[in-house]
Amino acid sequence: MMNNEQIVEALKESGMRITRQRMIVADVIADNDGASCKDICCIVRGKDSSVGVATVYRMINVLEDIGVIERIDMIKHRRNGDEG
């Protein structure tokens, strides 16, 4: 998992402005490896309630698109784990 500085650098390289809200989301993602999207939203909104849920999900999608994070289908992941 990337740290906060690496996430911010990847965002800059993809042409995104680094806003305060994006910094908060990057911090939360860097500090909570493996957290669900819902958990990330809750943590971000706990730090700053002005950050909207849509903003968090857009940021997660951007980070996934540029290869910073990988989304895991937890239901599929659990099923595959149970088969072994």
Task: Describe the SSE topology.
Elements: H1 4-13, H2 20-31, H3 37-47, H4 53-65, H5 74-83
User: Roughly how many Å apart are the termini?
Assistant: 26 Å
What form results from the Cα inertia axes?
globular
Quaternary state, please? single chain
Question: So, CATH architecture?
Answer: Orthogonal Bundle
Helix/strand order, N-terminal first: HHHHH
Q: CATH class, anyone?
A: Mainly Alpha
Summarize the amount of helix as a percent range.
55-70%
**Mean pLDDT across all amino acids:** 88
Q: Tell me the count of domains.
A: 1
- Fourth-level CATH superfamily: Winged helix-like DNA-binding domain superfamily/Winged helix DNA-binding domain
Topology, number of strands: 0
Portion of residues in beta strands equals: under 5%
State Rg: 14 Å
| Main β-sheet description | none
Describe, in short, the structure shown.
With 84 residues, the protein is mainly alpha-helical. Helices cover 67% and strands 0% of the residues. Helix 2 packs across helix 4 and helix 3 (37-47) packs across helix 4.
